[in-house]
């Protein structure tokens, strides 16, 4: 909702795609599909890219390994600078997968990586991002044999709630359209948005019923 208030044009574009009345309630199958409500699907996945609820994944190396790097990096502060093209990972090393950083990386997602743009979901995904394995090129739900078992349920659940809210209500920030507060991160078990310099994980919104 914070993103949809920051970008009212996205909220406005989403609303006409959704059914107008309760009698036309979409089915779980329709909401699970990527094609029945394509913009809702794109908005939902852009939320998962920009605001992954699980910020970081960790693994412990079961054996010695060497990770090849796509771009050489400097591992020491020595001069002249020495570049390396791989990282040695001894057995037992704690390896972190910085999910949010990967999802918002300019190198992978291009210069607009840090902008909320559901439109990128169509043809706008750059080649480096396409090489990321995982659901829709995102590590948000992890990947491989330990991929999130609730992925499909979680995505459809978000769509159920979002489609109901956006269909019935217009959301804007407390100060009105164009008055975007500075949003900060409230750290708890899961990251939540808050208004900078205010207490509590809350972002007050003004809500109007769709007539
Ligand atoms: C947007 C919401 C969700 C996100 C972003 C998410 C993300 C993740 C991630 C990153 C992992 C991998 C953790 C790891 O191995 O280190 C995971 C595992 C898991 N998730 Fe989710 N999850 C979500 C919702 C759910 C829901 C709603 C359920 C259940 C209904 C669920 C069930 C599971 C289970 C059972 C695992 C463990 C899978 C295994 O280790 O084999 N998740 N999830």
Quick synopsis:
The strands form four sheets. Strands 1-4 form a two-stranded antiparallel sheet. Strands 2-3 form a two-stranded antiparallel ribbon.
Walk me through this protein's architecture.
This protein folds into 2 domains: 2-53 and 98-209, Orthogonal Bundle (Cytochrome p450), CATH 1.10.630; 57-97, no CATH class. Helix content is 29%, strand content 20%. The protein is built from 8 helices and 8 strands, in the order H-H-H-H-E-E-E-E-H-H-H-H-E-E-E-E. Strands 1-4 form a two-stranded antiparallel ribbon. The protein has a two-stranded antiparallel ribbon with strand order 2-3. Helix 4 (38-50) packs across helix 8 (151-168). The model has no long low-confidence stretch (mean pLDDT 93). The site of protoporphyrin IX containing FE has 13 residues, from helix 8. GO terms for molecular function: heme binding; iron ion binding; monooxygenase activity; oxidoreductase activity, acting on paired donors, with incorporation or reduction of molecular oxygen. Pfam families: p450 (PF00067). It comes from Dendrothele bispora (strain CBS 962.96). Its main location: membrane.
Question: Unreliable segments (pLDDT under 50, ≥5 consecutive)?
Answer: none
CATH architecture classification of the largest domain: Orthogonal Bundle
The best one-word shape is globular
SS field, number of helical segments: 8
CATH superfamily of the largest domain: Cytochrome P450
Distinct small molecules bound, one entry per kind: protoporphyrin IX containing FE
Radius of gyration: 20 Å
Summing up helix and strand content along with how strands pair, one would put the structural category as alpha+beta
The count of strands amounts to 8
Measured by DSSP, the beta-strand proportion falls in 15-25%
- What string gives the helices and strands in order? HHHHEEEEHHHHEEEE
Biggest sheet: strands side by side, in what order? 1-4
Mean of all residue-level pLDDT scores = 93
CATH fold field value of the largest domain: Cytochrome p450
Please report the first level of CATH classification, the CATH class of the largest domain: Mainly Alpha
Q: What's the helical proportion of residues?
A: 25-40%
Q: How many domains make up the 3D coordinates?
A: 2
Question: What is the makeup of the main sheet?
Answer: 2 strands, antiparallel
Distance between the termini: 20 Å
């Amino acid at each position: 909702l914070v993103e949809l208030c920051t970008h009212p044009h996205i909220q406005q574009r989403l609303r006409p795609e959704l059914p107008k009345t309760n009698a036309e309630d979409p089915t779980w199958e329709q909401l699970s599909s990527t094609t029945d409500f394509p913009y809702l699907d794109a908005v939902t996945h852009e939320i998962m890219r920009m605001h992954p609820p699980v910020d970081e994944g960790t693994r412990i190396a079961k054996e010695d390994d060497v990770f090849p790097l796509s771009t050489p990096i400097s591992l020491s502060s020595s001069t002249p600078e020495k570049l390396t093209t791989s990282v040695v990972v001894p057995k037992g090393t704690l390896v972190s997968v910085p999910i949010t950083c990967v999802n918002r990386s300019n190198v992978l997602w291009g210069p607009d990586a840090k902008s909320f743009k559901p439109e990128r979901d169509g043809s706008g995904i750059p080649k480096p991002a396409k090489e990321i394995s995982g659901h829709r090129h995102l590590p948000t739900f992890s990947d491989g044999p330990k991929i999130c078992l609730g992925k499909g349920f979680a995505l459809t659940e978000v769509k159920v709630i979002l489609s109901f809210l956006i269909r019935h209500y217009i959301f804007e920030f407390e100060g009105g359209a164009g008055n975007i507060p500075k949003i900060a991160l409230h750290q708890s078990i899961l990251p939540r948005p808050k208004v900078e310099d205010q207490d509590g994980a809350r972002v007050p919104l003004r809500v109007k019923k769709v007539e």
